[in-house]
Specification:
mainly alpha
């Protein structure tokens, strides 16, 4: 359910040192949008979907806490807004759009 680009970003995170662990806002936004789309399209059982999102959410929280800086919330909001066309395209035409 996650496209190859997102999976590659997650794989790169597994090789980083704990002290320098940083999940980018763009990667987190794409993960959230892909999970929203999987929920809508019923790609997998919804309870499995939530169970799959939980460790990714905890990784994002850890990254967010390590990078705590002023304006982080606004940066995240801008990342969600910037990637909104991806969500809209996949929402309207799920069969025609492959990342």
């Amino acid at each position: 359910m996650l496209p190859p680009q997102t999976l590659l970003g997650l794989k790169r995170l597994t090789t980083t040192a704990p002290a320098s662990f940083a999940m980018t806002d763009a990667l987190w936004v794409r993960i959230v949008y892909d999970f929203v789309l999987a929920h809508r399209l019923r790609t997998i059982n919804r309870s499995h979907l939530l169970g799959s999102l939980t460790p990714l959410y905890l990784a994002w929280v850890a990254s967010h806490l390590l990078q705590a800086k002023p304006g982080a919330t606004e940066d995240l909001a801008r990342a969600f807004e910037a990637d909104k066309p991806y969500l809209v395209s996949r929402w309207r035409w799920p069969d025609r759009f492959n990342p």
